[in-house]
Amino acid sequence: MPLILCHSPKGGAGTSFVAAHLAMALAEAGHGATAIDMTRQDSLKLYFGLKPISEIPDLEAPENQGLTIGGVSLRQGWRATHAPAFANALDNGELPFSGGTFVVADIAADDTMLRDQLLPHASLMVVPVSPTALGLAALTQVVPGTPLIDLDYTAFIINRLDETRRFARNANSFLRELLGGKLIGSIHEDESVNEAVAMAKLLPAHAPASGALADIRALAKTIAQVCAPPQTEEEAA
Fold first, then answer.
1. Which of 93, 133, 138, 153 would be a feasible disulfide site paired with 9, CB 3.0-4.6 Å?
2. Residues 63, 68, 74: CA angle, nearest 5 degrees
3. Is residue 68 part of a domain?
4. Is the pLDDT of residue 82 over 50?
């Protein structure tokens, strides 16, 4: 059960978009995938073609009450992950989700306590970064020299990259130099993402040729390889 945390130190970096479409791309590639919204905003569901008033099953709801869209099992985890019992379970080495599926967790930018609680149990943390002045400034919270995050398990993604804009191009070059191999790719700015949410449609159905969709599919392949369990000698043979 690879647990992938999606968390950015700066709100508005598109973390929910990345979490939702990463889960869908993993499912599309044949992997089991669960997406858990661990934010108070409850916006992850919008990228699955649901409306703001729609409800998704709680993390602790029985399996037969689940909701699957785009091959992804959706769960709302805000209440469960902020209850005292959740922290106690983590202290005992227990997680409220199991199985061989990829679990993609959407964590709010300001919820660093939950991020730090889950990080020891995660296979990878994905950090979306916006190519803006504020996005670059927020990197002081996650670059080497700070004790908050173990960078051995952290990958960065440039999100909403518009290469027609000079600052974005320069930020892209700077981030590639700064982060090196920790930067695993970028997702280009694409208006069809907003259109799909506004029309309550899945992005693959609304805009199959979306550039952002192609970018996230490529990133999902990389992440699946990074998080894949090591082969045994028998499997390698």
1. 138
2. 75
3. yes
4. yes
Q: Residues 50-74: pLDDT tens digits?
A: 999 999 999 988 888 889 999 999 9
Domain CATH for 52 = 3.40.50.300
> At what angle are helices 15-28 and 211-227 packed, to 10 degrees?
70
Give the DSSP letter string of 149-198.
Answer: --GGGEEEEEEEE-TTSHHHHHHHHHHHHHHGGGEEEEEE--HHHHHHHH
State which residues form the domain around 112: 3-229
pLDDT digits (tens, 9 = 90+) for 182-222: 899 999 999 999 999 999 999 999 999 999 999 999 999 99
Q: What is the pLDDT of residue 43?
A: 95
Q: Contact at 8 Å (CB) between 151 and 139?
A: no
Position of tokens 């499912």?
27
